[in-house]
Amino acid sequence: MIQVAVMGYGTVGSGVVEVIEKNKAEINKKSGEDIHIKYILDLRDFPGDPYADKVVHDVEQILTDPEVKIICETMGGIKPAYDFTKRALLAGKSVCTSNKELVATHGPELIKIAHENKCNYLFEASVGGGIPIIRPLNYSLTAEKIDAITGILNGTTNYILTKMEKEGADFDDVLKEAQEKGYAERNPEADVEGYDACRKIAILSSLMCGKNVKYEDIYTEGITQITATDFVYARKMGKTIKLLAQSKEENGRFYAMVAPFMISRDHPLYMVNDVFNAVCVHGNMLGDSMYYGRGAGKLPTASAVVSDVVDCARHIGKVIMCFWDNEDVVLTGIEQASRRFFVRVAADKESKALQTFGSASVIEADVPGEFAFVTDRMTEKEFNEKAEKVGILSRIRIEE
Ligand code: HSE
Nearest-CA neighbor of 255 among 153, 329, 327? Predict the structure, then answer.
């Protein structure tokens, strides 16, 4: 029997307990041993909860119990999760986490500590919720040189953009409705400003290059400036707008960014709607592969945490390889990246815009007082210089 502790009995933590209980037979069979929850750490008490007798308030009880071999860290945030995780790993206890913030900030250090102590730090649930994406990158695609990852990694913003597209509604109205329904947080900043997706692509990018991509270095733009009018144009162009998190290696240069992009109907991410997430991975031998599913939510996320528990149970005393060195990757600034841009300007700037941008495809969408067009391919730097000269209303990057 393998004794497990769950740290943090919130949405994901209670989901972990539920998954282990409901799928007991499957999980025990696949682990090769019975998985038993010995402790649940939380500041609160849970009177009436079927697992109330397992709740403890002092982390020492878990960290000093030699029977506990695996810990699920579902607390979130850096403090005190970082300290608890580090101490658990130093004590040789494997940790399975859904905490993207901690993984993005201290991933390589915690992996190293785990390996030095013959245990594991696994984080399948930290990106894409229940979608298997960390394990494919670590195990399944090992024959590949992965050169691009593009994903829809945030369910809240994908829900908002899908609603804006389907209902012609504006950002603020859809956000309000999403908050009322509990799909968006009361403080939605981390989602709508792209910070959540930024941490997730930092993790995937680090696994792609085997070195550390710091989330602070990733250019990040959210969806707060996207309007119902942008979708009017997008529809005319046979496109939609998605918040993409992407990472590319081109001629030895690494680019990573999070921003809204226009994508066309033939793009594999076009049909990824509502709270669903998806990740496209490009390998130099395989070409494209895509991973799709529920990127958030209690049971999907808990299922990914428990899949890590099973992996740890199968590897007690052994290290599961994960290539993520401490060495920081120097990202190439996005001003060097080139693409086409969709641009809106006031109607009286039409000739100046055409003169400045040279050849451009005009988009007719009968929006009063405006002129809109798509530029030729150019670098962000070139685009910004021209846009400043003209004085544009807005722009959205186009993903080819
Ligand atoms: N707020 C996140 C999302 C939750 O909307 O995708 C999962 O990380």
Answer: 329
Task: Please give the domain boundaries of the chain with CATH numbers for all domains.
Answer: 2-130+298-314 (3.40.50.720), 136-294 (3.30.360.10), 337-398 (3.30.70.1150)
DSSP 332: P
Q: What is the full DSSP assignment across 88-111?
A: HHHTT-EEEE--HHHHHHHHHHHH
| H or E stretch at 375 | strand 370-375
What's the 183 CA to ligand 1 centre distance in angstroms?
9
Q: Is the pTM of this model over 0.90?
A: yes
Q: Which of 109, 105, 75 is nearest to 90 (CA)?
A: 109
Label the pairing between strands 146-152 and 239-250.
Answer: antiparallel
pLDDT tens for residues 328-386? 999 999 999 999 999 999 999 999 999 999 988 999 999 999 999 999 999 999 999 99
Cα–Cα distance measured from residue 279 to residue 97, given in angstroms and rounded to the nearest whole number:
20
Residues designated catalytic: 200
Dist CA 132 CA 316 (whole Å): 22
By most ligand atoms within 8 Å of CB, the mutation choice from 11, 133, 156 for ligand 1 is: 156
